[in-house]
């Protein structure tokens, strides 16, 4: 049991940066399928909680100090606005594991002014569903489609 937990810790941190690294890392580390799913969800949700409850503070105190307002790209702001206008919070949550990173998706949701409870709810549903889909696909088809250096053992 302790060995499984120790293997899951780096996977947890990888999921905080990029969602797909959870299922592939869990598979490569030889983790149990359920452990991989839970670790992936917990990794993403840690970032979601962190940025949902401290996102405004981070933007005001940290980012504004390092990024001058005139250097911010109007094109990137328009891209985020277009994503938000087209898909809304459920769409952004759905796209976060696929296209956006947990950090990027959460910051986009927080910057829209959505209620924190809704952000957490939609992100959790998205993380749970995509974690199961990716993990099951990788665990069942991994030997056929993944490179040799990712395969366990």
Describe the structure.
- The protein has 153 residues and is mostly helical.
- The protein is built from six helices and no strands.
- It has helices at 2-17, 21-29, 33-66, 74-95, 102-111, 116-145.
- α1 packs antiparallel against α2, α3 (33-66) packs across α5 and α4 (74-95) crosses α5.
- The longest helix is centred in the first third of the chain and has 34 residues, at 33-66.
- It is elongated.
- The two termini are 18 Å apart.
- The mean pLDDT is 84.
- The chain crosses the membrane at residues 12-31, 37-58, 87-107, 119-141.
- Keywords: Membrane, Transmembrane, Transmembrane helix.
Number-wise, the strands total: 0
H/E element string?
Answer: HHHHHH
How large, in whole angstroms, is the Cα Rg?
A: 17 Å
Distance, first to last CA: 18 Å
Summed up, the helix count is 6
Strand content: under 5%
**Number of self-contained structural domains:** 1
Low-pLDDT stretches: none
- What best-fitting shape do the alpha-carbon axes yield? elongated
Question: Which structural class is indicated by helix and strand composition?
Answer: mainly alpha
Largest sheet: none
Indicate the mean pLDDT: 84
Helical fraction equals over 70%
Task: Offer a few descriptive terms.
mainly alpha; 153 residues; 6 helices; single chain
Secondary-structure blueprint of this entry?
Layout: H1 2-17, H2 21-29, H3 33-66, H4 74-95, H5 102-111, H6 116-145
Helix pairs in contact: 1-2, 1-3, 2-3, 2-6, 3-5, 3-6, 4-5, 4-6
């Amino acid at each position: 049991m302790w060995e499984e937990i120790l293997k899951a810790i780096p996977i947890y941190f990888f999921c905080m940066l990029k969602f797909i690294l959870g299922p592939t890392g869990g598979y490569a580390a030889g983790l149990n399928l359920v452990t991989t799913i839970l670790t992936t969800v917990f990794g993403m949700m840690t970032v979601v909680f962190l940025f949902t409850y401290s996102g405004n503070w981070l933007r005001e105190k940290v980012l504004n100090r390092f990024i001058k307002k005139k250097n911010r790209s109007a094109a990137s702001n328009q891209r985020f606005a277009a994503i938000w206008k087209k898909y809304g919070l459920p769409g952004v949550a759905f796209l976060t594991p696929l296209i956006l990173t947990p950090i990027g998706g959460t910051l986009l949701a927080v910057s829209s002014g959505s209620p924190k409870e809704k952000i957490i709810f939609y992100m959790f549903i998205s993380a749970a569903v995509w974690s199961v889909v990716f993990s099951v696909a990788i665990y069942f088809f991994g030997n056929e489609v993944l490179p040799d250096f990712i395969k366990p053992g």
